[in-house]
Amino acid sequence: MSQRLHATPTISKARIFWPAFGVVLFLDIVTKYLAVRMLPAVHVPHPVIGDLLRFTLAYNRGAAFGTHVGEWSRWVFTAVAILVLVFLAQAYRDTNIADRLRALALGLVCGGAVGNVIDRLRSELGVIDFIDIGIGSARWYTFNIADMGVSIGAMLLAWSFWQEGKKGEARG
């Protein structure tokens, strides 16, 4: 029998990366559009699950957790995001074709980063945020689907690198 018949089928990294990228970017664009259309008043909470989950339209000219660098924040964070995307593109190229976890992580992070870059380029108001979670006055920073993709993807990417490091230590 040929070796090909006994080979374990693998899903290529592209078949994981591109759907993850596309889903995050699509959902981000659609939900931000709906947030702007259906939540016309900025900073007015609309309860979804009581006080725990609210939709509150906000615009973020800075970066994660309200980080700002002054009047140039829009362009500085756009440039930083583009540089990070270049680094992530190289990480994707260096990823083993069968490394599904890393491909998924990179797809989530890239989809989210592109979603937020689109907002920064589209409007000087900044990134559209609308997901508001917390209890009473103890609230997390308002965020969006792109932020979720970046955060979850970054955690998976860290896990992937950690797992790779453990395998390297075991061999060495």
Secondary-structure map:
Layout: H1 3-6, H2 13-38, E1 46-49, E2 53-60, H3 73-94, H4 100-122, E3 127-135, E4 138-139, H5 145-171
Antiparallel strand pairs: 1-2, 2-3, 3-4
Helix pairs in contact: 2-4, 3-4, 4-5
Please describe what this structure looks like.
It is a single chain. 59% of the residues lie in helices and 13% in strands. With 172 residues, the chain is an alpha+beta fold. It has one domain (11-171). It has a 4-stranded antiparallel sheet with strand order 1-2-3-4. A hairpin with a 3-residue loop joins strand 1 and strand 2. Helix 2 runs parallel beside helix 4 (100-122). It starts with a helix and ends with a helix. Mean pLDDT is 90; it is low at 4-8.
